[in-house]
Amino acid sequence: MARRGHRPSQAPGNRPRFWGRHAVLAALANPERQVRKLWGTREALANLDLPPVLPITYADVADLGRLVPSDAPHQGMVIEVDPLDDLWLGEVLERGADDRRPIVILDQVTDPHNVGAVLRSAAAFDALAIVTQDRHAPPESGALAKAASGALEIVPWVRVVNLARAMEEIAEAGYWRVGLTGHTQTPLNEALGSGRIALVLGAEGEGMRQNTAAHCDVLARLPISPRVESLNVSNAAAIALYAVATQG
Predict the structure, then answer these.
(1) What is the model's pLDDT at position 4?
(2) Fewer C-beta neighbours within 10 Å, C or N terminus of the chain?
(3) What is the CATH class of 89-245?
(4) pTM, whole model, 2 decimals?
(5) Strands (E), 69-215
(6) What does the pLDDT look like over 192-227, one tens digit per residue?
(7) Strand ranges (E), the chain
(8) What is the pLDDT of residues 111-164, one digit of tens each?
């Protein structure tokens, strides 16, 4: 079986910091996550069952505000973490070999808020994983973890070097690759079919690259009003995941 690729421990100055109750508690509950330090108000940390070996610094709200970007809603707690180890695509596909959970493929979606929101929708609709390129996707960060609202810790995120090659591997595993675009007349409900689905979404503005679209089995559009040119990629992902979940 393919194994996780190990990421070297990062220097303290380069480790991401997460903030907000959902992101922090999900990271603390994830056995795969190495949490290096926790800061929090006594009130926010009062009822938490924290590991005895975890370094904890009690701080007031103003001090916590200096640990995170300006106006970040830290809700009284901030943690410093190591990024999760890399996952191999083959490992994830093998794990999902006996179920019908969808995969979400993001083509050069670089905004951390969008990727975090897609992770949250993927968790809500029980997706098997999201797949992105390694170089054209955001790193783990506080903004991404906050937008994901805990989903960063529970949805496998596979980073690949070559997205087209990964899409070929996904097809070989039995997935029907549906690319979402406004440049087709085929509605999503007619494109889904009855098999396992991999949803492919491109970045806002540019959309899917031509080579990515060429590696889809079908291109489909969401039935939105002509008064709106397009949807935010995270909104489109949520609607498409709902469509997959209800296709019967």
Answers:
(1) 47
(2) C
(3) alpha beta
(4) 0.91
(5) 77-81, 103-107, 129-133, 157-160, 175-180, 196-202
(6) 988 899 999 998 777 899 999 999 999 999 988 788
(7) 17-19, 35-40, 56-58, 77-81, 103-107, 129-133, 157-160, 175-180, 196-202, 218-220
(8) 999 999 999 999 999 999 999 999 989 999 999 999 999 999 999 999 999 999
